[in-house]
């Protein structure tokens, strides 16, 4: 699942916990959700692991709005 769908399904509190567990902050993860940023490969892996594989690695790296 992509970051926006994860947020829509789980809400801010759980999504923020996943971001922090993966080693990033809420502000940066919001940019990933909005598609204005893409995480590094390392961060994408951490986000997938922190979400117990609910977030999709490829979806995180291929956001359509990111530069």
Structure description:
By secondary structure, the chain is mainly alpha-helical. Helices cover 66% and strands 0% of the residues. It contains 4 helices and no strands. Helix 1 packs antiparallel against helix 2 and helix 1 packs across helix 3 (41-50). The chain is globular, with a radius of gyration of 10 Å.
- Name the shape in a single word: globular
Taking all Cα atoms into account, the compactness measure Rg is 10 Å
Distance from first to last alpha carbon: 21 Å
**Percent in helix:** 55-70%
Order of helices and strands: HHHH
What profile does the largest beta sheet have? none
**Record field, number of beta strands:** 0
Low-confidence stretches: none
Share of residues in strands? under 5%
- The chain-level structural class is mainly alpha
Mean pLDDT: 93
How many alpha or pi helices? 4
Task: Describe, in short, the structure shown.
With 67 residues, this protein is mainly α. The protein has helices at residues 3-22, 26-34, 41-50, 57-61.
List the main descriptive attributes of the protein structure presented here:
66% helix, globular
Question: How are the SSEs placed, and which strands pair?
Answer:
Elements (H helix, E strand, L loop, with lengths): L2 H20 L3 H9 L6 H10 L6 H5 L6
Helix pairs in contact: 1-2, 1-3
